[in-house]
Amino acid sequence: MWLLSAPVFGQARPITAYQGTLGDAPVELVLIHDWQLNGMSGYLLTEPQRMPVPLEKTPYAENESLHINVLGDSALPTAVIALQPFAPGAKTLRGRAVDLRSRAQQALQLERVTRFSSDARDRFDGHLLQDTADARFYFRVRARKAQGEHSGRVDRITVSDRSTGEPVQVLDGLDLFFSGTDTLTLQDFNGDGILDFSVMPMRADDPSRVAEHPHYYVYRQDTGGYSREPQLEQLAAQGALTFGAGGSVNLRPQSGIDYRAGTIQWQHWRFATPDRLDLVGHSEERF
């Protein structure tokens, strides 16, 4: 369950979005700086795949080279990116990418587009690629933060077609909590095989606070776009939701927790169709 009704602060880890070329092809690189662990991670988006590929979290030493693995396979790295010299948030990065199977090398040239930082001295206004995609779509959010503020706001979500790279839907006029590359919690809620997502809105009566419950967006086959799902939002107002395969939804209602007896009464729901949610059973959990 989301429990963020207090004043909020933005993502703690600075994120830098780069665009450039890998060989002759356009490329995007997102680097996430974990300053507490002195490590860099992120992901890479190449043409024509347009699938965010994670980068392995790697220690670094400022102003030295950074060698970071590209995790194109679930078990093993498929490439390594070498950037030399390297500094977090640098305006320009130069280096090479080495395919670990063929040993082929390509030049990598990158220019900083936006640096997303929660430091009150910084400001930003830019689009950030989200870290999950599916066979059809990938996602970006536009986030803004003024100097003197600690947290950013999202006012736009753009859904793009992986086959063409073109936007297919823009959700605008939003006021959402910005939490970096996972601002959108992406998951197939209704079992139709297409990613849906949830987001955390800001409170209308107090813009410095996050609302108590998330907004849920599902893909509508009939309209070819995303819209909010009121059935899920009504359940989320009662307690915590978890999602399973085949459109299953499990609700742990706050009213169903009996601390004296040590029991939780769960409700189990399922999307009978992508648009209809039915109650299918109850269960009890002891704690």
- Rg result: 21 Å
Largest sheet: 8 strands, antiparallel
Main structural class: mainly beta
* Average pLDDT rating: 94
The helix content is under 10%
Major sheet: arrangement of strands? 4-3-2-1-8-7-6-5
Strand content: over 45%
If helices are DSSP runs of H or I spanning 4 or more residues, what is the number of helices? 1
N-end to C-end Cα span:
18 Å
* Strand count: 21
- Spans of at least 5 consecutive residues whose pLDDT stays below 50 are 1-7
The general outline is globular
Query: How many domains, in number, for the residues?
Result: 3
SSE series: EEEEEEEEEEEEEEEEHEEEEE
List the helices and strands and how they pair.
Elements (H helix, E strand, L loop, with lengths): L14 E8 L2 E10 L4 E8 L6 E7 L4 E7 L8 E8 L5 E8 L5 E12 L7 E6 L7 E9 L7 E9 L5 E11 L7 E3 L8 E4 L15 E6 L4 E4 L1 H7 L2 E5 L4 E6 L3 E2 L4 E11 L2 E11 L1
What does this structure look like?
The chain is mainly beta. The protein folds into three domains: 15-116, Beta Barrel (Lipocalin); 117-228, no CATH class; 230-287, no CATH class. The chain contains one helix and 21 strands. It is globular. Residues 1-7 have low confidence and may be disordered.
